[in-house]
Amino acid sequence: MSATAERSTGTPALPRRGRGMGRIRPGTWAAAAVLLALAASTLAMEVPARGWSAGFGLLAGTLSYAFMAITLLLAIRRPVLERLFGPLDRVYRAHRLLGAATAAGLGIHLLLRNDPEVSQAIDLGTVVAFRPLGVAGAILLVISVVLALVVRIPYHRWQPVHIVTMVVFSLLTVHALLASKGLGATPAFAISAGIFAALGTLSMAVRLVDKARGGVEYEVIATTRTAREVEISLSPAGRRTILPPTAGQFAFLTASPGGTRETHPFTLSSAAGGRELSFAIRALGDWTGRVRDGLAVGDRVRVDGPFGAFAPSTDPGRTGPQVWLAAGAGVTPFASALRTAASESSAEGSDPAAVDHAHVEMIVAARDAADVPCWDDVEAAAQRLPWVTLTTAFSADGMRLDVPTIDAAIRRQPAGTEWFMCGPSGLTSVVARRLRAAGVPRSRIQREIFDWRSPRLRFGLPGRTA
Questions:
Q1: For a designed S-S bond to 267, which of 3, 226, 338, 413 qualifies (C-beta 3.0 to 4.6 A apart)?
Q2: Which among 235, 226, 297, 292 has a CA at the least distance from the CA of 264?
Q3: 8 A C-beta contact, residue 253 and residue 227
Q4: CA 454 to each of CA 178, 330, 333: distance values in angstroms, whole numbers, following the listed order
Q5: Which pLDDT score, from 0 to 100, does residue 24 have?
Q6: pLDDT at res. 308
Q7: Torsion sign (Cα): 77, 83, 85, 90
Q8: What is the Cα–Cα distance from 62 to 70, expressed in whole angstroms?
Q9: Measuring CA to CA, how many Å separate 342 from each of 85, 124, 309, 330?
Q10: Omega prior to 306 cis, within 30 of 0
Q11: What does 253-295 look like in DSSP terms, one character per residue?
Q12: Can you tell me the distance from the alpha carbon of 114 to that of 129, in angstroms, rounded to the nearest whole number?
């Protein structure tokens, strides 16, 4: 998610990637442990009584229910989520993957549990409510998952239907309670399933409260428009502010241009730590187009964040060199970092050349300079800061960031260089593969997930490096 582009990506307490960001977080271990307990207790309860087919049918259903509870948890936007599971951009990818797994598991459950003996185990007084609830929940869930995965469906049409997952979870909770009562649930099964029921219910409550609250209110104090985007500057409308962001983090912006209220994540383009914020928003759809053309000084918006752990460092104490690779709108986290460094240098009144700072090569790929958000500030900061080398790959000038160019950039970097990349996943994936082929450790490769609704579902545990 770039500040100029909608994230299709924290909190200051989050460790930088390369200092623990690749590890599996405690929330993932805890969820895996309870899932294992639920799976073991399900098979131990069901297989001796009704056989392996019925056992796996019940297992598919209980795991689907647990997956749905976890997807609801991963949908909340609270700093604690990043401490438990890792950066929110990775968490949202896991959220989508678990949603697809939930739908698949429910399908297996409906197929394998179509057994007269199992139906007889349910009290006849509850049969009327029991099966329709499960079937209705499964149908609604499949519709919601399909809409979430079909990226051509506009956000304003997809989002209301996707919220139906809360209704689905409520239906399946009642379905699960009736099933547990009729099948004589063991204490181990009841406890492990109850944990996920409580987790999902609490997550729904938090999500509804957060949605109603909508974040911290800010006022638009300036707008800078270009042909493709607008950079909006915001100041707190009251005493409340979000936590001080670090360079590279993102936040959720809620605005109502043209009367259409939507919430989208964008990378912050402002310098780190300030009360005033800025977002560079590229017109990539109906709502972002209305933001570019219609959001005006004096308008009120809401901001929720900051999130993310994509952290290109401007710290003079950093020992190793870095490469910042930005493609088009992916320049925004680096613009934030450069603005931060330039601001700190000006505030201290020191000569940037006198500061012993590890070298940074910033590679910018785009159609031309006009296609790069915040380009004037990026170019000015690169000229002021002697530790920054700006390399452009503008297609209008006949230059492209192709494989030979990427390999050449890799070869000219000294050992120990850390790579930060933000841009379309197709490009950053190619660069990441070339880096790994050249022997660069995964711990030295950071990629910001640029498009959260990418049509490609990739498996990845929250908190693991990409």
A1: 3
A2: 292
A3: no
A4: 38, 16, 20
A5: 78
A6: 84
A7: positive
A8: 12
A9: 33, 73, 21, 20
A10: yes
A11: EEE-GGG--EEEEEEB-SPTT-SSEEEEEE--SHHHHHHHHH-
A12: 16
Structure tokens, 340 = 């931060």
pLDDT tens across 312-334, in order? 877 766 668 899 998 888 888 99
Q: Which long-range contacts (CB under 8 A, 24 or more apart) does 29-34 make?
A: 30/84, 31/70, 34/66, 34/192, 34/195, 34/196
Query: Mean pLDDT by 10-residue block, N- to C-terminus, for the chain (466 residues)?
Result: 44 37 77 90 83 83 88 86 84 81 79 56 44 58 60 60 73 75 76 88 87 84 85 90 88 85 86 87 81 88 88 71 88 89 66 62 88 86 86 85 87 88 85 90 81 47 36
Give the chain's radius of gyration (CA, Å): 25
- Phi and psi dihedrals of 266, rounded to 5? -140, 145
Q: Tell me how far CA of residue 401 lies from CA of 169, 396, 409, 428, in angstroms.
A: 46, 12, 10, 11
Q: Which helix (H) or strand (E) holds 362?
A: strand 360-366
Measured CA to CA, the distance from residue 280 to residue 332 in angstroms comes to 7
For 135, 179, 193, the CA distances from 187, given in Å and listed in that order, are: 26, 14, 10
Q: Which residues pair with 64 in a beta bridge?
A: none
The candidate with the shortest Cα–Cα distance to 269, out of 452, 7, 13, is 7
Backbone φ and ψ of 47, nearest 5°: -65, -50
Q: Rounded to the nearest 5°, which phi and psi values hold at 131? A: -70, -45
163: CB partners within 8 A, 6+ apart: none
pLDDT in tens, 346-379: 655 555 544 557 788 999 988 888 888 888 888 8
Q: Which two tokens stand for residue 121?
A: 């185990």
Residue 208: CB atoms within 10 A of its CB come to 12
